[in-house]
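Narrative progress, year one. The postdoctoral researcher (J.K.) led the effort to move from monomer predictions toward full complexes, under supervision of the PI. The following entry was the first complex the group processed end to end, covering 600 residues in total.
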Amino acid sequence: MKQVFSKPVSLKDVQTHFCPGCHHGSIHRLVAEAMDSFGIADKTIGCASVGCSVFLYGYFNIDVVESPHGRAPAVATGVKRARPDRIVFTYQGDGDLAAIGTSEIIHAANRGEKITVIFVNNTTYGMTGGQMAPTTMPGQKTSTSPNGRDVANDGKPFKMAELLSNLDGVAYSARVALNNPKNVLQAKKIIKNAFQYQVEGKGFAFIEALAACPTNWGMNPLAANERVGSEMIPYFPLGVFKNNENL
Amino acid sequence: MTALKRKFVKGNEAVAMAAIEAGVQCYFGYPITPQSDIPEYLSRELPKVGGTFIQVESEIGAINMVLGASACGVRAMTSSSGPGISLKQEGISYMAGSELPGVIVDIMRSGPGLGGIDASQADYHQATKGGGHGGYRIIVLAPNSGQEMYDLTMLAFDLSDQYRMPAMVLADSVLGQMKESIVLNPRPTVDLPAKGWAVRGTGGGQQNVVKSLYLGDGEMEKFHWKMHARYQELADKESRWEEYQTADAELIVTAFGCTSRIARTAVEMARAEGIKVGLMRPVTLFPFPKKAYADLSSHCKKWLTIELSTGQMVDDVRLAVARDAEVAFYGRPPGAGSLPTPEELFAQIKKFC
């Protein structure tokens, strides 16, 4: 019988701890499919961050270094410089990358480290229970913005994919979403591109993935998925903001 | 046999030269007085031997790059002084929790806060008690000469690899900036364990994970007792100290780092007048050579601890000596003009004799 479907070999055959309707699982899968397509899992080193994504090593069949909160791009720099022949990626949430780790991501990007960064933006701190994140949207209620994000007090959300695309050291910067089949297929292609940049030694590649967090948004999985399309994408537009093959 | 090379260099340069001799592959650092000679030297020399030098955006970034490189099994280091070492404590805690080696050089300056750039020993507690969160220790070596800046830097790499713990070379601005003649000893031949735990890509085999998160029932407690046993093994096997004229001493002066050099001159002045004084200098501050203090204090009951602070190591001395020994303290808190003279220390010796 012809096999038409299988799990990526880069993923372990285990259940995840992610909540129903969370997009981390889909993003894990797309990252694993990208690794499978290049056959690189056995020479890949992942840098996990702090948050819901810390258990990277529980789901991927790869070597993993756990990083302090926000420091994954610095840890990945150390890994890539020590082992330049390996594929190195970080997997970070919005609190990790765009709040406490702003310095590390900006400078790793500006140095043009030859790594891939997967940035999961769900507009909240998932692991700690739904506090306001640097990407929380104006007016969005969280456990630390009970009256909604007040831009006069808290500023406006970071648009990391656009921000990083302005740095000369960045080869590739894009934003994707997982809220419908079309966007999933587009995300698959773009995540694959991001790893291709590294496989070919071209430079720093950044993927921002918009993701649903039903638990902390206080929504059911369907409503949360719909919010990605109705509220997030209009504010955080999808697309490729930098694609510089000439670095 | 080739003659050993001799060089007239700053203590900071001796550290950098030793790091290269020890096979450091990656250096990550940030400028701060009085240690900037180390990154300056390595920015010039490390790439020549195929190593990586990065001037990082922050001390936090630097220690986390050390974490990443060390997780790959290569020798990695960083260096700084007070304010920068404080920033590195987060990463040092994670390295301790992940059982990662790595060398941190602290050329102490005065503090707290911005303080000043004069020699200080006021970061003793931060270095020896685990400066970050969670309850851990790191190896701390205290050189007192240009030669030891060189030799102990190489030792720091070996002990760090041997015991899978971060190791610190704890010196001060006098030792870092003073030029002395040193012998460029070759890297010692040591039988070190293979780094089978390092991440390198599975190669289709077993998955390696470097982490400090322990959520399973009893896992974290088990980790702490394992490390406790390792610290004990370290104390049993690696405690190092230097004694000078202690055999018949009726008073033993104890000091580390640059203070021990001044104290030695004071001891010589006392001996010239027939006063039976000796010097005990700890070389490892963690492990603190407790047994040596206990042994010496079984016959010598008078002790004088001298530090460039209001008293930190003296706590460890008091815990280590026999219960009937008396421990006096003389301190010069750090700052411009705070280095004691030999005459000043000699006067203190006479006072306590």
